[in-house]
Amino acid sequence: MSMTISTLARSAGVHVETVRYYQRRGLLDTPERGEGVRRYGDSDARRLGFIRSAQGAGFTLEQIGELLQLDAGQDRARARALAADRIAALDAKIAELQAARSALERLARECHASEEGPCPIIAAFEG
């Protein structure tokens, strides 16, 4: 299947400039112009989908670039290490969000318990 950059971008739910940015970063190849326009194939669409999925999992563009290189080299140990690092970062973020949720729940209960004095929620963010 042959498609223009706009069709490729639309298929992945991104803007054309996003595709160009990934090309500048070396994550996507830039095909030669044929008849004045660049044509992209299914492999480009798969690669763009991979990049978007990996971003959705929280990988940085640098890590995605490394994963793309690992795919060609079959270095599963390094891919597992990158995934383990990402899982640890997600676990830390989840713990941080759970702590923030608990603190906000406590403040909401305190705010609901009394109508006197300053609101505990607002006071917590002021100081």
UniProtKB/TrEMBL annotation:
PROSITE patterns: HTH_MERR_1, HTH_MERR_2. Pfam families: MerR_1. GO terms for molecular function: DNA binding; DNA-binding transcription factor activity. Residues 1-70 form the HTH merR-type domain. Residues 80-110 form a coiled coil. InterPro entries: DNA-bd_dom_put_sf, MerR-type_HTH_dom, MerR_fam. Gene3D superfamilies: 1.10.1660.10. Keywords: Coiled coil, DNA-binding, Repressor, Transcription, Transcription regulation. This is MerR family transcriptional regulator. It comes from Sphingobium cupriresistens LL01. The lineage of its organism: Bacteria, Pseudomonadati, Pseudomonadota, Alphaproteobacteria, Sphingomonadales.
